[in-house]
């Protein structure tokens, strides 16, 4: 199949999922065209089946806001015609599903019928898309997609609850490449990060309010009172600076490293002992799955789709949003002796295997077949 993938090219989970999906589809022989405003961060283009087309938005002083949707939908029309693309797969409803719908309409006028698959990722439904300014356009785009998927059952339920959706939503969970050989080949430079007697606790996110970064710091503050440990903070966003200040106030700055954005997520996870994700909500929690696939247990909240990924008392523990004490106490339980930690590490890997890319990919291929058949 010839498929156009539209996504955000940044470090966010939706862009990562879209990129990894495209890479695997290309390996499986499909011709994949990424269409976005910058090369996606995880996109390595060395495969003849992979193509990247940049959307340029000409700056014009008359426009207070430059019209990206217009440029994207025009680019989609041009690329579909030029490359004979058969299907659009748009990740994140705003504005991708909207632009995709416009492209479909323009192409139809020119006698080209093309189906559009929309994948909902979470914040496009639970945080941003739900805003009254966007809601009608998001409902419209979802209802006019040919097939709609969501990354968890919880997100599917939320979408039906928050929007007036008249069509079926298929759950296709996020996935991960569980490759033990690849892990074994990673340079695990643990000694550079912490002493032999210290445990390494990691958090990775975009440091937005929804991630409850102060809770990450507070949970770690409690843990380090009982277990010699270091906290690695990976990522960047508005909550980073206040978090650095909080660490200073708590007198734990020497135990916390703020890395900023990093392309070495696997290298960092390979020497981590525990992953913290105390988010207000997560439609799925891809970062938690990435940790688990590297054999790192997870302490998370029980919000949104997180219970579909992290399993209480098996791959980690899940607390109520804001229950720092519970999450810290359970973290200490996991880290208190090597045997317990080793069991949780094995369990985390076991759960991650349920989401192996090879199991999830056929679900997307079936979705594409269904969308094409509907034309
Ligand atoms: O977590 C974020 O703020 C980024 C956001 C995104 O749109 O990239 O992540 C969402 O999509 C990910 C991939 O499907 C999910 O794993 C995240 O849970 C989801 N984030 C939220 O629901 C807050």
UniProtKB/TrEMBL annotation:
Protein name listed in UniProt: N-acetyl-alpha-D-glucosaminyl L-malate synthase
Residues annotated as domain Glycosyl transferase family: 195-350
InterPro entries documented for this protein: Glyco_trans_1, Glyco_trans_4-like_N, Glycosyltransferase_grp1, Thiol_BshA
SUPFAM superfamilies linked to this entry: UDP-Glycosyltransferase/glycogen phosphorylase (SSF53756)
GO terms of biological process kind: bacillithiol biosynthetic process
Lineage: Bacteria, Pseudomonadati, Bacteroidota, Flavobacteriia, Flavobacteriales
Matching NCBIfam families: thiol_BshA (TIGR03999)
GO molecular function (one): glycosyltransferase activity
Domain Glycosyltransferase subfamily 4-like N-terminal residues, every copy: 11-179
